[in-house]
Specification:
8 strands, membrane, alpha+beta, eight-stranded antiparallel β-sheet
Length: about 400
């Protein structure tokens, strides 16, 4: 019996000191995560005109998307790299625009420097009214800037990424140990009581009629148990952004590269032409091949020798965040390849869902609500845990 008590005390000490070490960082990470879950919803609430087409009419067709592309490229002096056509015709169309920048040093230092092409920055998303052609907004407004700060706080504490990212990663590893040790402490103290429901019952409910110390203990113990699975899932997937070795190792274990889509290159076409099919025709082909409600994203290659890379995601409250993809010949509308999520092996499906599993949009609005609640609980755990420790120290004195 004494050996078991020593083991429990050892686990309790680990749980305590690891919590004190990483508590502040975990508080910041969970709080920023709970805010970031509803980023798109909050941005829509703050600036609905950016997303809604003001001239919407059921009988009004879109302006030709080619015309919208040409106007945007001319007005903003850039090159459109993607087009996102929403399933809801009351919404504005999204255009990703890469603006041209001139080299920092215009002096030619050696032969061949005169052929240096202007560098392209990360595309800026523009929201364009498809009925009037007017730009309704773009990324970089106050709401977008606020959530960019929240994201940087969540990922590297607003520090230099080389410093902040490992701090977040180490704290996340500590959180995983805290979760395991906390689960062990949640179980009834003695093994012989595991068959008795009255010894399990306190771990499933909060006794609000008790004193504040007991309520605080129950808030930490019970809420921590209920949110354990999702918080662990967030931690395990979040490490992919903190450590390269973890990301690569997880990919090898799962048998599929993590974030493989980042390295995908557009397919090269054998035969090209001077005339491409319209984007309306591209959308029609996609919807014919993938006949369900969803948003269509067309990635436009930098040159005319490559195919369009297209993805379509289902829309709805319980829609899973797993797009179907295809490569399309922009000159004759031929489907070169079709990659359906349902046909992928289970391991590939899991790996491809790491980002939505981490940020909470894996099952649309339904999963966002669950993630938001669990993140708030995760924010409270360092606070209630420190109060428990403080009360114990006070009692000893």
């Amino acid at each position: 019996m004494k050996e078991k008590n020593k083991f429990r005390k050892f686990i309790n000490d680990i749980h305590l000191w690891l919590g004190l070490i990483a508590g502040i960082v975990l508080f910041i990470v969970c709080l920023s995560g709970s805010i970031y879950v509803f980023r798109s919803d909050i941005e829509y609430f703050v600036n609905p005109n950016k997303y809604n087409a003001s001239d919407f009419n059921n009988n009004s067709p879109y302006l030709p998307i080619e015309k919208l592309v040409a106007t945007l490229e001319k007005t903003e002096n850039g090159k459109v790299s993607f087009i996102e056509i929403p399933e809801n015709r009351e919404k504005n169309i999204l255009f990703g625009l890469s603006k041209k920048t001139t080299p920092v040093n215009n002096k030619i230092k050696s032969k061949g420097d005169e052929n240096i092409q202007p560098k392209r920055q990360r595309p800026t998303t523009y929201y364009v009214n498809p009925y009037s052609g007017k730009i309704a907004g773009k990324d970089g407004d106050k709401a977008s800037e606020f959530f960019m700060i929240v994201m940087k706080l969540h990922r590297f504490l607003l520090l230099d990424p080389s410093i902040g990212r490992p701090i977040i990663g180490i704290s996340t590893l500590i959180f995983i140990l805290l979760s395991i040790s906390g689960l062990i402490l949640w179980f009834p103290k003695k093994f012989k009581y595991w068959k008795r429901w009255n010894h399990w019952k306190p771990g499933f409910k909060i006794k609000f009629k008790a004193r504040w110390k007991r309520i605080n203990h129950d808030l930490h113990n019970t809420l921590g148990f209920y949110s354990l699975f999702l918080l662990l899932l967030m931690a395990i997937t979040g490490l992919c952004w903190s450590f390269e070795w973890y990301k690569n190792g997880l990919g090898k274990i799962m048998g599929s590269e993590v974030f493989a889509g980042r390295n995908e290159k557009p397919l090269t076409l054998k035969n090209t032409s001077d005339q491409t099919i319209s984007f309306e025709e591209v959308e029609r082909i996609v919807n014919q091949q993938l006949p369900y409600k969803g948003d269509v994203r067309i990635n436009i290659p930098k040159d005319s020798a490559h195919a369009y890379s297209i993805s379509k995601s289902k829309s709805g409250i319980f829609a899973i965040a797993a797009p179907d993809k295809m490569n399309l010949n922009p000159y004759n509308g031929e489907i070169i390849s079709l990659d359906l999520f349902k046909d992928k092996p289970l391991n590939v499906q899991i790996v491809s869902l790491i980002k939505p599993l981490h940020i909470g949009d894996i099952m649309g609005t339904f999963s966002k609500v669950l993630y938001f609640i669990c993140c708030l609980i995760g924010t409270s755990l360092p606070v209630t845990g420190i109060i428990i420790w403080f009360n114990k120290m006070k009692k000893k004195k």
